[in-house]
Amino acid sequence: MSGLTLEGVSKRFGSLTAVDNVTLNVPQGTFVCLLGPSGCGKTTLLRMIAGLEDPSGGRLLIDGADITGVATHQRDFGMVFQSLALFPHLNVGENIAYALRIRGIAKADQQRRVDELLALVHLPGHADRPVNKLSGGQRQRVAIARALAVSPKLFLLDEPLSALDAKLREAMQVELRQLQQKLGITTIVVTHDQREAMTMADLVVVMGEGHIRQAAPPVEIYRKPADSFVAGFIGSTNLLDLSRDSSGRAVVGGVVLPDVILPAGLDRARLSIRPEDVHLTAPTAGGLTGRVTFLRDLGGTIETFIEVAGTTVTAVSTPRERPDVTAGDSIGVTLPAEACVVLKQ
Ligand code: ATP
């Protein structure tokens, strides 16, 4: 178990910069999710950490020791990739014991470790099963057990759950997180699924175009996104154009939000507010008013779409708070200051 430090790590493929000067400190025992849209450089960064790709610049350190030039097989990392790459001609136990066997571990110790790992991934007694007779979720667990066989310093996973159906994926997210907490192993997972990142991570690293846009705990990323890119990528949000009045207060749709202050020098900005934070009321004189365009009743929640200040704002309510409106009605829209995040445009 170890901590990882990335110092100015970059990767160029010809004229394309896939990873651009990434600096990150991952304390021992942290669960990190690298999150971002397709092509933002997540996999390339993970492959450099794994030693499968040489950085074009920068350094990688484990517990302060430089591992930049160290070969993959000498890094002692456990890896699970999207394809899983289980050996089809070996049974479950043989797959898990593979790394132990090539290290010359005694047969009885291999057996003990396989049983221990199968218990850990909730597959006791499955050692003799052929891998092609397993379900997707079971295969996933075998791949995880195999990667953990030699007690790796770092556990690296690239989209490990993407082949599973939605329900199983959610169950496996919880399982993976619980397993990681039990073992206390520093884990880095690449995903493009923000729910997955929110479920599992201590530290979410949002990447865009090869850069880290924000690295923070999930709730901080959700509540205090660093910019519009992060705000729009994590969960859904409303983004409204803001201007600044002479006292520095935010103005949206001609209405002053008295408790939302724009920093000096920032005359135009955007306001991010989550749908569950938008309060709907009867229209009030001088307050922000909009027109309901659509209501979507999802059973547990109701989404109200409102045209306001030149954009569409979504408000999410519970059935108990259900606004008594239909499409076409006017409605008061309250944006509580404590839920408003001011972002540079
Ligand atoms: P995805 O979620 O689609 O897997 P990603 O965020 O993991 O995307 P990367 O696979 O790291 O993105 O790719 C980042 C950029 O680097 C992309 O533009 C990709 O085309 C490019 N790239 C990746 N590997 C190579 C390579 N071996 N040669 C050339 N370009 C590459």
Automatic annotation (TrEMBL):
InterPro entries: AAA+_ATPase, ABC_SmlMolc_Importer, ABC_transporter-like_ATP-bd, ABC_transporter-like_CS, Mo/tungstate-bd_C_term_dom, NA-bd_OB-fold, P-loop_NTPase, Transp-assoc_OB_typ2. Residues 4-234 form the ABC transporter domain. The keyword Transport applies. Keywords: ATP-binding, Nucleotide-binding, Transport. GO terms for cellular component: ATP-binding cassette (ABC) transporter complex. GO terms for molecular function: ABC-type transporter activity; ATP binding; ATP hydrolysis activity. The keyword Hydrolase does not apply. PANTHER family: SPERMIDINE/PUTRESCINE IMPORT ATP-BINDING PROTEIN POTA, SPERMIDINE_PUTRESCINE IMPORT ATP-BINDING PROTEIN POTA. Belongs to the ABC transporter superfamily. This is ABC transporter ATP-binding protein.
